[in-house]
Amino acid sequence: xxxxxxxxxxxxxxxxxxxWRRSAETIGALHETWNWKDGAPVYTARxxxxxxxxxxxxxxxxxxxxxxxxxxxxxxxxxxxxxxGALRRMPAHVTHFGVHDHGFNNISxxxxxxxxxxxxxADPLDADVCRLALRCSGAVxxxxxxxxxxxRTDGPPVPMGFVHSFNGPHSLFVDTIRSMRALAVAHAxxxxxxxxxxxxxxxxxxxxxxxxxxxxxSVYYGEGRDAYDVPGxxxxxxxxxxxxxxxxxxxxxxxxxxxTTWTRGLAWAICGFAELxxxxxxxxxxxxxAGVAWAEPYLWRGATAAAEFYIAHTATDxxxxxxxxxxxxxxxxxxxxxxxxxxxxxEPVDSSAAAIAxxxxxxxxxxxxxxxxxxxxxxxxxxxxxxxRTLFASPYLSDDPGHQGLILHAIYxxxxxxxxxxxxxxxxxxxACLWGDYHARELAxxxxxxxxxxxxxRFFEIPDGS
Length: 466
Known about the structure:
By secondary structure, this protein is mainly alpha-helical. It has 13 helices and 9 strands.
């Protein structure tokens, strides 16, 4: 991508305000028409949100989007949608032992609501319910654990493991790095994981082990790990032998191949690592933890490598194609030398990856600035703003009142063929997804706060009740 070194948050304010106006319409339309007996909405087809049974990981994005809308514009009906949905429909997600998605469903709802309560903008009577839900969610997520073996050469042995994906105990998903905030919040609220015979496990230690495992195995560093070891490339899935904990090979569920880079997975890595680094830096007391002390350098290394790979392997306007090794890209020529083309005939772009990566770049830029890395801070911050400027305008920001999506040209599962292909097209295009819309709203709220000169929302800024 070509980073605009002059763009500022204030430059994007007109687009941000336009996004919030359109966002209000889409949240209202979806909330008024969706039949929850069908499951949670996932992505649009012909402009209408549809469900897709795989794992229930998106419901929290709908209610969380309403809470973000309220945060941005202060309209009470959105607080009502978000609050009512969280308290009535999300409890089942708190104790969902079968998924790795607690950071998506529960931080987006109970976490956002508790943050608003801490800011004096929501009813404090809901605080204890939110705190209990978040404590339970973090412990449930941490219980989904696979120990692994790591023959570390740069220091003494450390406990390693990961929160395994819904595929089973052998499977580490790069996506799950952003679910670690569920463990972070629960730890901040004083929660531990109690096991057999009252064995106590620190959620912070598990978070650090998982994050370091993701940095070690899910991110490449150009060190000859395999024939496709390009610095900053990410693997969607890493497979382990659950009997002895040894790493076996990369894999993927939603990317083109284990040896190419599914760009939404890349985006999750940038955003998830950066957000945890924000937490470490904002809470100096965490630095006294042995887990944080040894894991943090791995997170920084993984975040910076992934960010630079994103910048180098994305179209000039900052929007990526769905996989950097997708075979149809060969038909597009030098696709990195021009803006992304969502209506081409060969491979789809993924705007949801762009929304996730953009806020990750902003967060990483902020961390770099706090650490005195002024050049890197400017580079990543301007990169995030460049991506946001693209997303918050045509052809990505929806301007069709009949379309329930906010950010168009998103992809869910290209290998499975789940995404809607319109008549006359050979590829999916023109549709939205709930996580893409949610993360675009998070991104817009961050930029709004940057322009106002106030801190942007951070998942760990919640009242602990003490």
